[in-house]
Structure formats: C-alpha cells, structure tokens
Amino acid sequence: MSEGDVSTQTGGGVGRYLRLLRAFARFGLLSELAFRANFLAKVIVEIVWLSLLLVFYHSVFRQTSSIEDWTQARFLCFLGCYYALEGIIETFFLENCSEFAELIRTGNLDLYLLKPIDEQFLVTCRRIEWSTLPNVLLGVGVAVTGLHQLDGWHFDLGWAALFLVLFLCGVAMAYSFLVMLMSTSVWLVRNQSLFELWWLFTTLMRYPREIFAGKLASPLGWFFSFIVPVLLVVYVPARTLLQVVQWRFVSVTFLATLLLLWLSRKLFRRALQSYRSASS
C-alpha cells in the first residue's frame, strides 16, 4: 500500500468519526452486557487493584511525612492522574493495539484496510473496553480526595484549563508509544517482547520524576524525560493540578506530544507500506 493509498482513505469530517466512535461504544457496551458477570468481575478486579495500591502507599507515608516534596495528599493527586490516564488508554486503545499482531497473522487486517476510513483510527479505536472505564472515575475520585486534603489549594479556571490540555497531551503521548510498538508487528509478527516495553513504561509513569535522584538514577531520569519522555506523561499534568509547574517540562511535554504523534503516524504508514496481505 502506497502513501497515496493511505492518504486517500483519511478523508471525512470529524462528525463522521464521532458517529463511528458512538457506534463502537454502543456495540462494545452491548457485548459487555451480554456477559454481565464477567463485566462485573473485571470491574471488581480493578477496584481491588486500586485499593491495594492505596493501602501500599498509605503504609509508605505512615513511615515518612513526604518523599522529596511529595506529601501523601500530593501523591494521591498524582496517583489519581495516573489511574485516570491509564483507564482512558485501557478503555479505548490498549486491547485494540495488542490485537494488531493477530490481525496480521490471520490476514484479517485486509478487511480493515478495505474500509473507506482511516486505517489507524479503525485499528486503534474499533473496540471500547467498558470494564476499565470506571478506572477513570476512580482516578478522579482519588485525585479529588488528595486535593481536599491539601492546605491552601483553590480552584482556578486558568490552572484547570492548563491541566486539561496537559492531561490530553499525556494521553496522546501514551497513545503514540502504543501505536509505535504496535506497528512493529508488521515486521516481527509476534512482538510480545516489545509490548513488555509498554508495561515498563506504565511502571515508570506510576512514580514521580523525583525518584530518579542520585548519581546512578539521574541519567535514567534524564533519558526518560527528554529522550523517551515517559516520565512526563503523568508527572507534568499532576504537577499542574497541584499548581506547581516547572515550565521547562511543560514546554518539553508540548513538543514531545507533537513529535510523538508525528513519529507514530509515520511509522504506522511505513508499516502498512511493508504489509503483505494474506492474498498476496
């Protein structure tokens, strides 16, 4: 498939894609409700997992009042941002991207390439995992609890708008990482080992950048902030929510978002050019 072939299928207004997302959401919800016990089990597992995290971090902060400048209340805000962002990624993108290798192996990718819609949108957004959507609400609840415990914090519309923009940048960066890992399936077919990188990335996102302090850890913190900016995905929005901003990281986040979206799109298109259909 040539670059031109891909480009000709990207047309269509925003409304068309929103209608498709609505259809995907309706179909996904009906599929989940067909197996209600399984749906409830997955939701309960997510709640238990968050509860375990909260118990663990509560135990940590019982031994110390703060880690660097992260008090328990501030860290709850950070954890809430992480859990909400991870919930969005898992709900809309993760399962779709992880199944891309199977589409290639079975030849079912051909069916998606024949549709008159942008292939990247269709491949990465075709299924919505409703069982992880409550994670977003749980994350919001944890963040609000942390804000309520903070002294001197007050709502400000400007800070809220900046936080929302940076949170969306974090989602876009995480999505870009997934698309780039997914695209390698065209050449590797089974790229399970590369998807282990995604779990490494989510582990790094779970902690503030300040944990990478010291002679040995500082180079890692620099690498994962400015070369592979995984540490900024949650860190910068969480700092903005706390109204404590390092503008250097805000600038890097904006630039990294644009660059990663461009790189992931280019790599996906290049992967489609290298793809050989099941009939070829």
Which terms would index this structure?
single chain, about 280 residues, mainly alpha, two-stranded antiparallel ribbon, about 75% helix, globular, disordered N terminus
Descriptive report:
It is a single chain. The chain has helices spanning 3-8, 14-33, 36-63, 72-98, 100-106, 109-113, 119-125, 134-149, 157-183, 185-188, 192-205, 218-227, 232-241, 247-274; strands at residues 66-67, 70-71. Mean pLDDT is 86; it is low at 1-11. The chain has 280 residues and is mainly α. The longest helix is centred in the first third of the chain and has 28 residues, at 36-63. It has a two-stranded antiparallel sheet with strand order 1-2. The chain is globular, with a radius of gyration of 20 Å. It starts with a helix and ends in a 6-residue tail after the last helix. The protein has one domain (3-274).
How many separate domains make up the residues?
1
Segments where pLDDT lies below 50 for 5+ residues? 1-11
- Terminal CA distance reads 12 Å
Order of helices and strands: HHHEEHHHHHHHHHHH
Mind summarizing the main beta sheet?
2 strands, antiparallel
The count of DSSP E runs of length 2 or more, i.e. the number of strands, is: 2
Average pLDDT value?
86
In terms of DSSP E residues, the strand content is under 5%
Write the layout of secondary structure elements.
Elements: H1 3-8, H2 14-33, H3 36-63, E1 66-67, E2 70-71, H4 72-98, H5 100-106, H6 109-113, H7 119-125, H8 134-149, H9 157-183, H10 185-188, H11 192-205, H12 218-227, H13 232-241, H14 247-274
Antiparallel strand pairs: 1-2
Helix pairs in contact: 4-8, 4-9, 4-13, 9-11, 9-13, 9-14
